[in-house]
Amino acid sequence: MSRKILVTSALPYANGAIHLGHLVEYIQTDIWVRFQKMCGHQCLYCCADDTHGTPIMLRAEKEGITPEQLIDRVWHEHKRDFDGFHVDFDNFYSTNSIETRHYSDTLYTRLKEAGLIEIRSIEQFYDPVKEMFLPDRFIKGECPKCHARDQYGDNCEACGAAYQPTDLIEPYSAVSGAKPVKKSSDHHFFKLSDPRCAGFLEGWIAPPHVQAEAANKLKEWLHSGLSDWDISRDAPYFGFEIPNAPGKYYYVWLDAPIGYMGSFQNYCDNHGLNFDEFWKPDSEAELYHFIGKDILYFHALFWPAELAHAGFRTPTGVFCHGFLTVNGTKMSKSRGTFITAESYLNHLNPEWLRYYYAAKLNGSMEDIDLNLEDFAARVNSDLVGKYVNIASRCAGFISKRFGGKLGACDSIATEEFVAAFTNGEIAKSYEERDYGRALREIMRLADVANLYIAEKKPWEMAKQEGREAELHEVCSTALTLFRDLTLYLKPVLPKLAEQVEVFLNIPPLAWTNAWAPLPTGHAINDYQHLMTRIDPKQIEIMVEENKQSLAPPPEPAPARHAEHQQAKAEAAASPWEPFISIDDFTQVDLRVVRIANAEHVEGADKLLKLTLDLGDATRTVFAGIKAAYAPETLVGRLTVMVANLAPRKMKFGLSEGMVLAASDERGGPFLLSPDSGAQPGMRIK
Question: Residues 492-527: pLDDT tens digits?
């Protein structure tokens, strides 16, 4: 029975290049969509660039162009990279569109009519240097839940908790580094805490809507209490203005998933389809979202709750995948393993990566590792040594001895292949996104085919008189098995499959026309080499070139899939990376100081007021060390301060630097103490 399926991937943010971490998701989705189409289903794959938010506005301003010019340029770059990896969207669009604006207004209006939008006056962080309200992703500080440092203002990447920016401990602006101040502003909230939303989600959060492991995490969030979601931002902002709310804009995370609807509406308008047949509440169509586990909260709590209460259908399934590591660690620019799609395509065959990712993916939320040595070995062994080897060993005999025409096929030799197709395990594995299991079975069948050839030894038959008919049958059987393997591999290796279809002179392979035997006398074309082995030197060159082209980190970006993947990929491969240069280090003026006085600060729970003697001057510093030290124990001690840190105005007074202390989960803070002989004012080098 033919199915109607709409599939989406998380929208890449239009503020950075596509890299190998992003491609895990798009390759995973593309394989699944191609399989569904090969089964004869109507399966449409829609995506778009996520184009709104402060990062776009600031980057365009920095480059001296309009936001529209920036997102247009990035759209073409993204489309080039996706095309290069054979990611075949039915529609790749933009959220900066009339369709996305229409559905943003529609959802907002319906939720407001349902009493699920509330306007509240809130205290919001404001950057006094940049003179702008700070979006969540432009505020960093200590997580209020697990106390991980340098976390963004909307959720913690260490523990996954969601919170308000004002909950952060010791927040600072990611734009200017300044301590933000609080200002009041009216904001629009989606009332996720409403009992109607919680009641709906209680029943919705379960397989098959989400994976079992995702359901456990979602239930944990649900039962710990859902927070209302601030869906508005203040001008200046690049995005859609909220109806009847001048100077207020939809937060980019509101219209990003709505971009799925906008992209599909655009496809419907161009192809004569009915949008409502896929999105109305009683739709019989299936809707699947492929996402990274970092945005599960948004896609499996906010999104279905919004849809359900705005009169639209909810997803049939939200499929989460894990992150990518390279050689067992996070992608790293200093190691040369932060590799963009463009860089990879300059050196290596995209289908090599498609195959390797597929071999690693099992439908779970586990992270996968791109081990570059294993990558080369597996591709060379499986695709060249096993699969392509079948055709290269037998095709020449058909062309030279039999005029390029196939003979009869050995039905006994094909029995195991027929059984594998009949039991449906490979198809089931593709359906369940367990591509690794599918490829293991396909390579087992490739071993069966190679064993058949090795036992028959067609190269010896060709030298013996009177064995022409047997040689013809063996080579024709081998090419039939090769065709069947190509059918199974086609969702993963679409371009290679097209080459095989041309070589074998057959129509496009599909699950619906499998196992129709090639008739005796069927003419094939001359064999052309299908795939080369990976030369490890190609990988080495790519890695070295990426080491030589280190770039500064990107602008902070909103909490969507592309930014989260970028942030995780750019994180260091070890606690010491990314490395700084000696020039970076010498910009920090570290000085030995003597604590001339220390005293409590009235009204402060964590601070002590320190008077620091630098030998020829004194400085006042407010330090958060009250929990570890009594003031009287500090007087006369030597320690270290950052002398050229910009003074910071605090409500207790002006802090003119920072003392250095060590701390982690084992305890602290512990002040640093110079060795004997160090004198106040000495510079640390």
Answer: 999 999 999 999 999 999 998 766 678 899 999 999
Cβ contacts of 385 within 8 Å, gap of 6 or more: none
| Tokens matching residue 238 | 């690049």
Chain segment 535-592, per-residue pLDDT in tens:
999 999 999 988 854 444 444 444 344 444 444 443 333 444 556 666 667 778 899 9
What's the full length of the chain, in residues? 685
Q: 66 and 60 in contact (C-beta within 8 Å)?
A: yes
- Determine contact, residues 292/568, Cβ cutoff 8 Å: no
Find how far residue 427's CA is from the centre of its chain. 26
Are residues 248 and 183 in contact, defined by beta-carbon separation less than 8 angstroms? no
Written as one string, the DSSP assignment of 383-448 is IIIIIIHHHHHHHHHHHHHSTTB-----TTTTHHHHHHHHHTHHHHHHHTT-HHHHHHHHHHHHHH
Q: SS3 for 246?
A: coil
302: tokens are 């906010």
Looking at the DSSP assignment, which residues form a beta bridge with residue 370? 326
Q: Convert the pLDDT of each residue in 586-614 to its tens digit.
A: 778 899 999 989 998 887 778 889 999 88
pTM of the entire structure? 0.78
**Phi/psi at 152 (5° precision):** -75, 170
Angle between helices 252-271 and 98-113 in degrees, nearest 10: 120
What token pair was written down for 13? 């943010």
